[in-house]
Design brief:
Elements lengths: L3 E3 L6 E3 L20 H4 L6 H12 L3 E6 L4 H4 L4 E3 L1 H10 L4 E5 L2 H10 L5 E3 L15 H12 L7 E6 L4 H9 L3 E3 L4 H11 L2 E5 L2 H10 L7 E4 L10 H6 L2 E4 L11 H10 L4 E4 L5 H6 L2 E2 L2 H9 L6 E5 L2 H10 L4 E4 L15 H12 L11 H15 L3
Parallel strand pairs: 3-4, 3-5, 5-6, 7-8, 7-9, 9-11, 10-11, 12-13, 12-14, 14-15
Antiparallel strand pairs: 1-2
Helix pairs in contact: 2-15, 4-5, 5-16, 7-16
This protein binds 1,3-dihydroxyacetonephosphate and iron/sulfur cluster.
């Protein structure tokens, strides 16, 4: 009988005795292997090979998986979670290698939080986040200077969503600000208003507005900053009156949900509960019954009574997984057309296998390494958030 490995998120155990179908790794110690040869690896051998590679690495590796990962990948995660939970896991991990099945900003955050001896790997470097890329550091610095020409910048606190580049996190740390995630945005905004009069919220307009509104900030006191317009497209007076300055960024997956879809699903399923991610537009969040981070969505549906019906406004892999796991509840997507995060989807079992087998031979592939100066300031911003735990 071989070792038993726990598959994250459930009590399922799998045997790690290498079955007869496991193929020998096609890499030489110290030489490494090109990813192309993995593209041809047949799917039916991947599970066994991934499990075997993981066992070989033992305590040297921890695999973190975001809820939007595909089933074939997330089943190998030691920890699965939303951005906040995974950032705690990254800060508490001891394993030499942190393999992050998520997107680039998540792996960067893990690298900022890691211990000295740790190395962070993103199985596919093309797994980015279009929202994070919408706030360019040059544009944000220019915005700050423009704001300073109208108001006292020392009274502005930057709050940046976890979905931002390491450079934006460092900017935030340098300017006495904090990071937030979709599950603690209100707590971080409260902290910010104890430390200043205005917040520059980066880069998701919708998370900022949805959270601010729920905290009682009127819509007219939240202005949008368009980096392509002078003073963000605002008058000096609007900037002076604003409490939250919302960067004009959005998630292309969540922005697809509409209030019309909420109305339709209510018509077609009387009594259905609608729960959406706070990256959805304000009108959608207003029309929904509940708003929650990915972890919040899972908890709400898991704790709901059997027989309840849910329409969910978030990425489809999570919605489908919930539907499959909770047989006695109905869980459907708010959007009848599939809403995939195409960048999360880039992490395939082949990529995971390639990364693990290379690590097993001491070949570090796809390392995410943030430079020391950026790490230092970004860590300040992340630590301010983690202190609010
Ligand atoms: P969560 O922190 O809710 O998991 O959200 C991350 C994300 O990228 C949602 O699009
Ligand atoms: Fe980025 Fe949207 Fe994908 Fe989340 S769902 S990782 S915000 S593109």
């Amino acid at each position: 009988m071989g070792n038993l490995v726990s598959i994250s998120g459930s009590s399922t155990l799998i045997s790690t005795d290498p079955p007869a179908t496991v193929r020998a790794p096609e890499i030489e110690p110290g030489v490494g292997c090109n990813f192309d040869s993995y593209l041809l690896v047949p799917d039916n051998t991947l599970d066994d090979r991934i499990a075997a590679a993981k066992v070989r690495l033992g305590e040297d590796v921890v695999i973190l998986g975001h809820h939007y990962q595909r089933d074939e990948v997330i089943k190998f995660a030691d920890f699965r979670g939303d951005s906040l939970k995974l950032s705690f896991q990254a800060s508490e991990a001891y394993a030499r290698y942190i393999v992050f099945c998520g997107v680039h900003f998540m792996a960067e955050s893990a690298d900022i939080l890691r211990r000295q001896h740790q190395i962070v790997v993103l199985p596919d470097l093309n797994a980015g986040c279009s929202m994070a890329d919408m706030a360019d550091i040059g544009q944000v610095e220019a915005c700050w200077d423009e704001l300073a020409s109208v108001v006292d910048a020392s009274k502005i606190v930057p709050v940046s969503y976890m979905n931002s580049t390491a450079a934006i996190k460092a900017f935030t740390g340098q300017h006495r600000g904090s990071i937030c995630t979709s599950s603690n945005a209100a707590a971080v905004l409260n902290w910010a208003f104890e430390n200043g009069e205005k917040v520059l919220f980066l880069p998701d307009e919708h998370l900022g507005r949805n959270t601010g509104y729920r905290m009682g900030i009127p819509l007219e006191q939240m202005i949008v900053w368009d980096p392509y317009q002078e003073l963000g497209g605002n008058t000096p007076e609007a900037v002076r009156n604003a409490r939250i300055i919302l960067w004009k960024g959005y998630c292309s997956v969540h922005q697809r949900f509409t209030p019309e879809q909420v109305a339709r699903v209510r018509r077609e399923h009387p009594g259905i509960r609608v729960i959406v991610h706070p990256e959805c537009r304000f009108e959608v969040a207003q029309a929904a019954d509940h708003i929650g981070s990915t972890e919040g969505i899972i908890k709400a549906i898991e704790s709901a009574p059997a027989g309840s019906e849910w329409a969910v406004g978030t990425e489809i892999h999570l919605v489908n997984r919930l539907g499959k796991a909770l047989h006695d509840r109905t869980v459907i997507s708010l959007d009848p057309n599939v809403c995939v995060c195409t960048t999360m989807f880039r992490i395939t079992p082949q990529h995971l296998l390639w990364a693990l087998e290379n690590l097993g031979f001491g070949n570090i592939v796809n390392r995410i390494a943030v430079d020391e100066r950026t790490r230092y300031y970004a860590r300040l911003a992340l630590d301010r958030m983690l202190a609010l735990r």
